[in-house]
């Protein structure tokens, strides 16, 4: 598995160098969209607007949304590109299982994408003048968000494996992701709080807002809920992907486009 990850890191590095302009363009577009929204809200609300720590929480949610969008599009996008170029079957006859190949590719791409996400976050903080906290404890809730994101990515990838083109579905799903990562479910109470704990990635996103924006101590009980949430969605995504792989092979349309 380490050999596979190393090969994928090499591939990702080569692509990153050859298409550096696209990466820079992604940084510019992502920061411009957020800053445009920020200026629009500030203009509408007038000079008396006071965001408080809400702006910090919005920044956390937006950056998480940008990161999860990349993860969501990674596996399904790879499947569609490989189907178009006619190399999809090669991935499925490698010595590694298909889920291992796509997971290693996703992790390798994420390691490079993390630098771009960090650049977007720094630029947004500089433009808005709001500087978040970065305690070491933030890695634990971030891990739960990544688990949930990869689980959903494998679930969407299973759909792409069967029908090959799902751009419209991904477009609609982006708005649902914005809701999941931006709405402060950690402030909900009663049955709504229970619903928030069941939504994918929502508990981990709430913890990140508390730790980075509100500078609160890490809630271990809520962290346990977030870990279970991320682990369950990751397992569901893998199960769906493996089922879709068997279904596609059984019907003989793995390389169809």
TrEMBL record:
Signal peptide range in chain numbering: none
Pfam family name, one: ABC2_membrane_3
ABC-2 type transporter transmembrane domain sequence ranges: 58-238
Top-level taxon: Bacteria
Residue stretches spanning the membrane: 20-45, 57-75, 110-132, 138-162, 169-185, 220-241
Subcellular location field: Membrane
Protein name: ABC transporter permease
Organism for this UniProt entry: Stenomitos frigidus AS-A4
